[in-house]
UniProtKB/TrEMBL annotation:
SUPFAM superfamilies associated with the record: Transposase IS200-like
Name the UniProt record assigns to this protein: Transposase
PANTHER family to which the protein is assigned, alphabetical: TRANSPOSASE IS200-LIKE DOMAIN-CONTAINING PROTEIN, TRANSPOSASE, Y1_TNP DOMAIN-CONTAINING
Annotated Transposase IS200-like domain residues: 9-139
Amino acid sequence: MKKNIYPLEAECFYHIFNRGINSQKIFFNDRNYHYFIKLMESKLSSVVNIYAYCLLQNHFHILVKIKSEKEIRLIFPHKNTIEVSKIISQQFSNMFNSYTQAINKHYGRTGKLFELPFRRKLIGSHEQLTNTILYIHNNPVKHGINMNAENYRYSSLFSIKNGINDPLVSLDAIKALLESSKGC
């Protein structure tokens, strides 16, 4: 039975994660990581705000808050008869499909790149939200890739700690989130 496949609801926080099929690589070089980040910005920013992310060779983690139904309907007025949860899922699907097609074309491969469906965990409390941010940012250490999470380049923590402008994540937004949020 498939786990974690319930619809994504407006105005809720989710830990989104997935890995390559059979735990195989999904990122092969620096350009792949940057392209995935670019796709997150272009495909997901219309339906979510991203608060943390970490991309590793064979998997990724993203903490998002789904935008309000009103915000999503304003961005997609031509989809006013479609359920908002389906619009949200379609944007994630578009991102994963775009990335897979680019990787397949570049590396002369065919077929799926990611396990299906992508996983999601609803964040229900402020404590869970804080723990998820720490978990996501500590992933390079957990997997023995980097002994200092702040030095891992493909994480929102790297941008935040090094004062690099990240088009996906705002330091002020994370501070406000940690100070006030209660989850979904």
